[in-house]
Design a protein that fits this description.
The protein is 22% helix and 31% strand. With 289 residues, it is of the alpha+beta class. Strands 2, 5, 7, 8, 9, 12, 13, 15 and 17 form a 9-stranded antiparallel β-sheet that branches. Strands 6-14-10-11 form a 4-stranded antiparallel β-sheet. Strand 3 and strand 4 form a beta hairpin.
Length: 289
């Protein structure tokens, strides 16, 4: 009953206004005493392992978002395998993984979502991944919230898709239809030795924003002026190359990464299953290069 009420409340909540307010508060550098108290409450509430942080002092951060996007100690997450090894891009929990079938991606029992909608509604973009592979990884509040490259790649395109901001925890994944193709998201398209790869950074309730090295902070509702999808291509001097394991983005509060690979080039590791906790850099699969 409580889960049903939680899901229902999200349909009634002013998601964008609440998320924008949360983002401004998380970026605020005012009232240090209040900020320190809140960060310490957050650490206790969500079991944050501050000993892994490069700066383990909760009072040393200038804002809550500085703490939330904290760096790890160097070398703490070794990047396993070799160039044909695809690694986990984040610390998190495997929500689902498997084949894309008939243009649909499995979400939870009785639920799936559209690959075409997930990638911003462009059929040519979706066709690249027809009958390919996907993996969805959920980041809990206490997790490390930087996103890294699962394999080396060159950025080709970024697509910002406005949408709703439902929570993305297991309860909503099981109850909200088309969840990951409804929520606001940033689609990052890469060219790799195993063909095209998409990393989809999905926003969620009170997610202040998503940040990338090439576009800076992408805030909720900040797409084109008419509220539609915005797209930016990268080529020539703008065609950024990223090494395997290199940071490619940050969640400034919350969320989920959907990793999409083209057909016949990826085999997920048998060790990776729904519900399994994963760490950045651990073996997630093998790719044909």
């Amino acid at each position: 009953m409580m889960e049903k009420l939680f899901v229902l409340s999200q349909y009634l909540t002013p998601q964008l206004s609440l998320s924008r307010l949360a983002g401004r508060m998380a970026d605020s550098t005012g009232t240090p005493a209040l900020r320190h108290r809140f960060i310490r409450w957050f650490i206790n509430r969500y079991g944050v392992n501050t000993s892994e942080a490069e700066n383990s002092d909760p009072d040393a951060y200038d804002s809550f978002n500085d703490f939330f996007t904290r760096a790890l100690k160097p070398g703490l997450r070794p990047i396993e395998g070799n160039e044909s090894t695809l690694v986990s891009p984040v610390d998190g929990c495997v929500s689902q993984l498997g084949n894309i079938s008939g243009g649909r991606i499995f979400q939870a029992k009785g639920q799936s979502f559209s690959l075409l909608e997930l990638l911003g509604g462009d059929q040519q973009r979706a066709d690249i991944f027809a009958e390919g592979e996907f993996a969805t990884i959920y980041l809990a509040p206490g997790d490390y919230h930087r996103i890294h490259m699962p394999m080396a790649g060159q950025l080709q395109e970024m697509v910002h898709v406005p949408g709703r901001l439902f929570s993305v925890n297991p309860a909503t994944a099981a109850s909200v239809p088309n969840l990951f193709a409804r929520n606001e998201r940033v689609v990052c398209m890469f060219d790799t030795a195993a063909g095209p790869m998409a990393l989809v950074l999905v926003g969620a309730m009170i997610v202040g924003s998503v940040e990338t090295p090439w576009a800076g902070v992408v805030k909720p509702g900040a797409a084109s002026g008419d509220g539609g999808v915005s797209q930016q291509s990268y080529s020539g001097e703008q065609a950024l190359k990223f090494a395997r394991g290199e940071e490619m983005g940050r969640f400034r509060l919350g969320s989920t990464v959907v990793m999409v690979m083209s057909k016949g080039r990826t085999q997920w590791s048998n060790a990776q299953k729904p519900g399994k906790k994963v760490k950045l850099g651990e073996v997630f699969g093998q790719v044909e290069v």
